[in-house]
Design a protein that fits this description.
This protein has 324 residues and is α+β, with helices and mostly antiparallel strands. The chain has three domains: 58 residues; 129 residues, no CATH class; 113 residues, no CATH class. It contains nine helices and 14 strands. Strands 1, 2, 3, 5 and 6 form a five-stranded antiparallel sheet that branches. It has a five-stranded antiparallel sheet with strand order 9-8-11-12-13. The longest helix is centred in the N-terminal third of the chain and has 26 residues. The termini are far apart.
Length: 324
């Protein structure tokens, strides 16, 4: 029988909480006897003694819950899967709908009770912020008790794009995701508020575009060449991670500095794109490339110019760690 995503308290959760409550009640009774004998106790210990009545009441409710079957939880496969599903779903829930709705199939509408910020990231990630009201969204299976949202998930390595293109609509390549299975356990308060936010994303085996070495400077004298590898890789990441795009209208000396003034320089990038290595050289004139440069795969254009990226990156901390 598949382990469906569940929200609430399982039989094991109830049994464990009964055991923990019994143990804590014994400790508090021992502290109470110390206080009766006028032995010293801390302020926190005195508070725990005063709250024995609330603990006994909670223990009684837990014991009644255990007698009634030992579980108070809801199966929430449909609700959570709706949040994850997209035409190219990568994060699927065991026992839920099949991962990947296929080309031309509309994803189910997300429950309007889910607050802004909860999303499935076009099918490759699941995000639940602290302000997510789980009780309003999923229901309240055990009023008055803290609860657990358990999500058993699977990530498939195959991303079906529905056409012959190597790149999928989610920006990943077929078989370039790391397959994985596991279970997430999220603790929530009695009012349905998460104790910690969740963001889980399918990991890529390889980056779409990786810069191995980038340099800018004199075409022959290596003493007058700047190593700008980390700067160029940062630009790639800010442009989406799948391409490097530098227009010939961009003043590259303003961002990479000028290693040899008065000399026509060369901008050189050694890269690897989905396992295929390459090297490209573009000459510079008066601080501008002679031709626009674009490496990688077409996709959703982030529309981020190098000048805009560089302005974000050139913080004092970045200047200390970036060569050139």
């Amino acid at each position: 029988m598949p382990n469906h995503p569940r929200y609430g308290l399982s039989e094991g959760d109830v049994a464990l909480r009964v055991k923990d409550a019994h143990r804590e009640l014994v400790r508090r009774e021992m502290l109470a006897r110390r206080m009766e004998k006028d032995l010293p106790v801390t302020a926190d210990e005195a508070r725990r003694v005063r709250e024995r009545g609330a603990l006994r009441a909670e223990l009684g409710e837990l014991e009644r819950l255990a007698e009634d079957g030992g579980a108070a939880c809801l199966t929430v496969t449909r609700e959570v899967q709706q949040l994850v599903d997209a035409p190219n779903t990568k994060l699927g829930l065991d026992g839920g709908a099949a991962a990947g709705a296929g080309p031309g199939v509309e994803a189910p509408a997300v429950d309007p009770a889910v607050p802004d910020g909860c999303n499935g990231g076009d099918g490759i990630c699941l995000a639940l912020p602290l302000e997510c009201d789980l009780n309003t969204w999923l229901g309240d299976p055990c009023p008055g008790f803290g609860r657990v949202l358990r999500i058993r998930y699977s990530i498939s390595a195959l991303d079906d794009c529905g056409d012959s293109s190597e790149m999928t609509r989610s920006g990943h390549r077929k078989n370039f995701l790391i397959p994985k299975r596991g279970t997430m356990e999220l603790l929530a308060s009695a009012n349905g508020t998460l104790l910690a936010p969740l963001r889980y994303e399918a990991a890529k085996c390889l980056p779409v575009l990786q810069v191995h070495r980038a340099s800018f400077g004199h075409p022959h004298d290596m003493t007058k060449v700047f190593d700008i590898t980390s700067k160029v890789q940062d630009i790639v990441q800010h442009q989406g991670g799948y391409q490097l795009k530098i227009s010939k209208e961009e003043d590259i000396t303003a961002h990479f500095k000028d290693p040899c003034r008065g000399v026509r320089k060369v901008f050189q990038v050694g890269y690897e794109c989905l396992g295929l290595a390459g090297l490209i050289r573009v000459r510079e004139v008066d601080g501008f490339l002679q031709a626009s440069l674009r490496i990688g795969y077409p996709g959703e254009d982030k529309g981020t110019a190098v000048s805009e990226v560089a302005s974000r990156l050139m913080t004092p901390a970045h200047r200390q760690t970036t060569p050139g």
